[in-house]
Amino acid sequence: MKKRKIVIVGMGSIGRRHANLLAERSDTDIAFCDPDQTMLERSRTEIGPYMAHSGFEQALASQPDIMILATPHHLHVEQTLMALERDIHVLCEKPVSDTLASAKRLAREAPNHTATVGIGFHFHFHKGLLRLKELITNGFLGQIIHISCRVGSFITLANSTSRYQASMQGALLLDYAHQPDLIYWLQNQIPQRVYVSASLAGDMEFFSDPNILDMSLEFQGLFRSTIHLNYLQMPERHEYEIVGDKGWALLDANTGQLKLGNLYENTINIEHIMLDRDQMYRDEHQAFFDAIDGNRAVETSPQDGLISMAIIDAAMRSWKSRKPATLES
Q: Are 162 and 268 in the same domain?
């Protein structure tokens, strides 16, 4: 059996998670890449004495089949295109980039290459969120009127090794690109306007501007959505609520508890969904391999990833102007 040669680029916490789970497989041959020698040594100690590259060009020259990019946001597009030029498949962690213009560049240029590109929104493989998508698709909730997301996570700042959030305005939106993406993934609608109210508040050990944010998304028709994000709460909160004209659903994405309300029966049923964070990444890896092999479509293409970037871009403009912002096409 021929093994897939994979270089994981960026050996922070997410990169090490990818590497550790890929090292479990019998069909992969992994290597590390990071300019920080300390991170390479930590990875080899925690995961195994695999090949380690200190530079991206060196990693490219090793001619892997696949690169997994867990690098800073502003490097994503340039590194992806450099890999595609060498016919290397790329699974790039979310968000696509740190700017909409750069994300548009990738969406425009990626189809000119034969290698596969996927954007790493691993929550598409969260069993609770998959259950919500099933409830929407099978009509259990009826016409969907509203979807709300809530994430409060001080631990994100506490666990950050680079502390880039302290100097990057709007890091909260980029760190939680998952939520705009999930609104689109669940409902398959693109908002027309976004309004954001946000601030930097509280006496916290670690901070980012803003560290609390509320976003309202307006769509064509009656459907609406809201997203609440903060870097303040610990333990973390991570919840989704969907309201339809036949019922509602409330998911705690950390515990797997799902409450289902039925309008006609006036009842609440509770489901307990077994969650395994590592399994989301395993499923993401397999889906990407299957896409490379032509057995399925890539889960999130650069064009799909562009939608969440357009929402983030509008949210940034709304936050700074304190006015609603229209999505750029």
A: yes
